[in-house]
Amino acid sequence: MSDLLLTNLESVPGRLIAEHYGLVSGNTVRAKNVGRDIAASFKNLVGGELKGYTELLSEARQQATDRMVEQARALGANAVINVRFSTSSVAQGAAELYVYGSAVRVE
Question: What domains are there in the chain, each with its CATH number?
Fold first, then answer.
């Protein structure tokens, strides 16, 4: 992913958009696991970060982003602009993490 630029801006500062390839996206659906739920229940009593869920979401963001980058590369893009993340519940205890942006070639 190091040679492909990702930004939540509508352009890459100092670079010109030479070509626009369109929307690219990546997603993953993740379910909670029982071990994390038990740990989260205890944390709810005393407060604090739910590290199991933090790790789960971090992994999900990375996997979805990797899938979007793969799609952008297949189109010949060297950047994805206007990157956005979205989540939605798809079933009891399962959520989708979706990332999308515009694949472009910048010079």
Answer: 5-106 (3.30.110.70)
- pLDDT, averaged in runs of 10, over the chain (107 residues): 87 97 96 60 64 85 97 98 94 90 98
Q: What is the dihedral of CA 6, 9, 106, 101, to 10 degrees?
A: 60
Q: Say how many C-beta atoms besides its own lie within 10 A of residue 25's C-beta.
A: 17
Distance from the first to the final alpha carbon of the chain: 18
Tell me what pLDDT residue 32 has: 72
pLDDT at 38: 54
The number of CA neighbours under 13 Å toward the Cβ of 55 is: 7
- CA-CA distances (angstroms) from residue 21 to 1, 6, 8, 45, 53? 18, 15, 17, 49, 35
